[in-house]
Design goal:
Elements lengths: L1 H5 L3 E6 L2 E6 L3 H15 L5 H15 L3 H22 L3
């Protein structure tokens, strides 16, 4: 638990003679950190190879994956456009 606390993944509060730990990141944030750490360890490859490998895996594991990825990309682009428009108004 101490290691996870030092990495910023947990917070803690001392209660009596013990610590009570709480998660500091949600599941999606944790997955994102793990993926980022993995990709950082393979710095010699381009981002294209990672994206293609991910896409191949998604297609092989679920026939609806392409539609889902397409919708997720659309949602992310819309959110990014809305966010960039907030500062321009």
């Amino acid at each position: 638990m101490e290691r996870l606390f030092r990495k910023g993944l947990l917070s803690r509060e001392k209660v009596s003679h013990a610590y009570v730990y709480r998660a500091e990141v949600n599941r999606m944030q944790m997955i994102s950190r793990v993926i980022d750490d993995i990709l950082q360890s393979f710095t010699t490859d381009s981002k294209d190879s990672y994206l293609l490998a991910f896409l191949d895996h998604a297609v092989e594991s679920d026939t609806q994956a392409l539609d889902m990825l397409e919708q997720m990309i659309k949602d992310k682009r819309e959110a990014a456009a809305a966010k960039s428009g907030e500062g321009n108004g």
